[in-house]
Amino acid sequence: MKRVAFDHCVGWLHAGPGATGVVLCAPWGHEAMWSHRAWRHLAADLASAGMPVLRFDYPGCGDSAGAEDGPDRLNACTHSIVRAAQTLRAHTGVERVVLCGLRLGATLAVLAAEAMAVDEGRRPDGLILLAPPVTGRTYLRELRALQGSWCNNAIPDIPVAPPRDGACEVLGYRLPSDAVALLESLRLERRATCPAPRMLLLDAWPGAGSPVAALAGRYRAQGAQVTRFDFDEYPAMMRSAENSSVPEQAWQQIAQWLGPTASVARRGERSSPVSADAVLRVQGTVEQPVWLDGGRQFGVLCTSDDGGDATATAVLFPNTGGNHHVGDCRLFVTLSRQLAHAGVAALRLDVSALGDSPQAARTMRIAALYGEQPSRDVAAAAAWLRARGYRRVVVAGVCSGGFLALQAALAGAPIDGLVLANLLKFRWDSQHDDSDRGGGDADAQLQSTRVYLAAARNPAQWLRLLRGEIDPWPHAAALARRLWSSRAGAGSTRGADDLDAYAREAMHSLQRRGVRVDLLYGAGDIGLLEARARFGRHLEALAPLSGIRVHVLPRLDHSLFLTESRAQFAACLMRHLAAFDSPVEAASQVAPASGPTALPTAASPAASRALRQSLR
Predict the structure, then answer these.
(1) Is the pTM of this model over 0.90?
(2) Complete DSSP assignment for 376-402
(3) C-alpha distances in Å from residue 408, one per residue of 5, 379, 417
(4) Which of 176, 66, 32, 164 is nearest to 601 (CA)?
(5) Which residues contact 453 (CB under 8 A, 6 or more apart)?
(6) Cβ contacts of 175 within 8 Å, gap of 6 or more
(7) What is the DSSP string of 262-315?
(8) CB 590 within 8 A of CB 541
(9) Rounded distance, CA 299 to CA 69, Å?
(10) pLDDT digits (tens, 9 = 90+) for 118-154
C-alpha cells in the first residue's frame, strides 16, 4: 500500500501481480466517510487476490487539492477517474483496467468509461457498479431527505435554512448548483452507449421495480455480459464510520467475479516507480505522508512551502469517532492548510486502528475508540512532533478525538494546549456500552433533554409523527434514560462522586502543568450536561482555573456539520494559538467564537502574518 499523487489528487496504490487492475471510484461526501474502512479493505482484499488497485480522492475531496464547491465538479471528478486509470497502467503495467464505483462513484465510473472510449479509443475492460443511483433526481431526493432528517432529529433547536443558490447540502457536504443541475437530468438507463463489455451490478434495493435490475437489462440489451447480485449488506456498511461494517460477502463476490481474468501474469513491466513519499503542493502549502510510532500510525503533515518557522508550533488533529484523518466535512484538511499559511504545522493523524494506518482494524466498536491504545497513539504522535523540533504542540479534537487528546495530556504527553469540541466523557468506564455515545448515525444521536424539548415544541415534528415519518420509541426511551440518569445523579452516588473527583483533578492537573484548555460545547449538546454534572450547573468549579476556558455556543452542532460550527471551532483554535504569546493581540485578530465567522480555505495574508509573528 503506497501513497501516490497525480494531477493534484492523492490516493493509495495497493500492489498485486495480476494483469487486471482496478480503480476504485469512491462515493461522495458523507457516504465516502462512512464507507472508508470498507473501501480500504476492499482494495486490500483485491490486492491480496493478485489485482493491483488504485483508490484515490477526487479533486476537492479528502486529501486532494481544491474545494468541494468549485465549478464543474462532476466533470473534474470524471476526468480524475480517467487519469487514475492512466496512473494505474503507468505504475503497474496492467493490461486491463476495471472501474469499480460505489453510489455516486458508480455514476462517475459510467461517465468516465464513456470519456475513455472517446478520448482513448478504448472502454474499460469491466465495470462494477455498487448501489448505483440510476437517476440523479432520485439520488438528490435521498440526500435532501437525509439532511431533513438530521435537522429535525439531531438539531431541532438550531434553525437551518436551505441553500438559496440551488446547491444541495447534506451533513456538512455541499454539491454546487451546477452539479445539482447535471444530476437532475442524469439517467443512466438512457445513456446511448454501453460503457463496458463486462459488468457487475450489486443491487441494494432488489425486488419488483428495482431500477438497478432494469439498468442491468438495458446493458444486456446493448450486448454487455452482465451479472447482478443483491447487496444485502449495504445498510450495515452505509452508517457512520464507528458503526459501519465491511460487507464481507459482497467483497468476496467482487473478487470472484474478477477472478477469471485477474490472475493472469502481466507481460509488461512497471514503467515507473511509485514513491512512498508522495508529496502534494497546494496553494503555498506542502503536504507529505508520514508514518510514525514505529510505522504503526499514518498521518499527513502540512507545512508552509516557504519553510515557515519549522521549530515553532504544530497542531495535531486526532480521529473523530471512526472517521479517517480528513475529518467530517474535510474540517482537518481545511484547517491544516489555513494553519500552514499562518506558519503553523498541522498533523492529521490516523491512530493505529483507524483510517489509512498500516494495520487498521477491519471491525470497530465504540468502546475501542475510547480505549487506552488510541490515547497512547495520540501521545506518541505528540512526542513525534516534539522530536521533530516543534517547541509547542496543541491537540484539537472533536468528541472522541477530544477525549483521546485529554487522556494523552493527562498521561504526561508533551502537549501544551487542548482545544476540545463537544467532549462527551472525561473518563471512559467499563459500564459505558456502545449505546452511550455522542456520534453515530446522523438521525439517531443521543441528545440532551433541551434538544428533545425543542423538538417537542415544533409543530412540524408532531405532523411528521402523525404521518408516521418518525418512530417515537427510540427517542422516548432515550429521553427516559436521560431523565432517570439525571434523577439518579441528584442522589450523589459513589460513582458520581468518583467521576466528579476525577474530572476536577484532571483539570487541576492540566492547570498545574501549564496546559491551556479550551472546551467548546453546543448549547444543546449532551457533553455540556456531562460537564455541568462534574463542575456544577454554571461550571463554577472551573472558575478558579485561569488556564481552563469554556465556550457555550448556540449554533455548535455535535459533529460540526454546520458551516457556523466549523467556523467557531477554527476561530477558537486560532485564538488559542495566538494567545500563548499575545492574548490581547489575538483577541483583536480573530473573530469571537460565538460570532458568525466564515471558515476560510486559507487565512488572509494579513492575518497569516500576524498569527505567524505572534507564534515565533
Answers:
(1) no
(2) HHHHHHHHHHHHTT-SEEEEEEETHHH
(3) 32, 5, 11
(4) 66
(5) none
(6) 28, 29, 73, 140, 143, 167, 168, 169, 183
(7) HTSBPSSPPSS---TT--EEETTEEEEEEEETTTTEEEEEEEETT---TTSEEE
(8) no
(9) 25
(10) 888 889 999 999 999 999 999 999 999 999 999 999 9
